[in-house]
Amino acid sequence: MVLDAIIEKESLSIEITDPFKADIEAITKKIENFAASKKTDVAGCDIRGLIPKMIRGIAGCESGCPANAKSLVENGFANFELKYIEGGILAAKASIEGGKTLQLKMFPDF
Predict the structure, then answer these.
(1) Phi, psi at residue 103, to the nearest 5°?
(2) pLDDT class for 110, splitting at 50, 70, 90?
(3) For residue 104, pLDDT beyond 60
(4) Which is nearest to 48 in space by CA: 70, 80, 73, 75?
(5) pLDDT, tens digit (0-9, with 9 covering 90-100), for 45-91
(6) Which of 6, 68, 74, 103 is disulfide-compatible with 11, CB 3.0–4.6 A?
(7) What is the largest CA-CA distance in the chain?
C-alpha cells in the first residue's frame, strides 16, 4: 500500500508495507516534516486519526470491497474532503496554513 502526500504540486510517497501494523506515528511525522519543508503546517489536520481509517477503508474488506472505503467517504472525517476513486484509491483533501492544500492519496497493493 502506498500513501502519497501532496502539497501544491510536490509529493511525498510513503510505503506502508504491513497495513495491519502500520506505524501511524512515523507516517504522520513524515507528512509533518514534508509540510515543514514546504514552509507550512498541518497541525489543524487530524492525520493521525485519518490514516488508520483510510487503511481500513482499503485493506479492511470485511464488508466487501470497496464497501469500507465508500462508507468512510459517506461518513466523512473531520475537515477532510474524502473521495473514492475507482481501483480502490482513497483521496483526502484539506486546506492548510498559508492557503495551501494537503492531499493524501492511498493506493492499494492489488
Answers:
(1) -120, 135
(2) low
(3) yes
(4) 80
(5) 999 999 999 998 888 654 555 667 888 899 999 999 999 998 889 99
(6) 6
(7) 40
| Amino acid residing at 64 | G
Q: Is 108 helix (H, G, I), strand (E, B) or coil?
A: coil
pTM: 0.90
| Side-chain half-sphere exposure of 95, counting CA atoms within 13 A | 2
Alpha helices, H only, the chain? 24-37, 47-59, 67-75
Chain-centroid distance of CA 8 in Å reads: 15
Nearest to 31 by CA among 85, 106, 108, 98: 106
- Residues 6+ positions from 33 with CB-CB distance below 8 Å: none
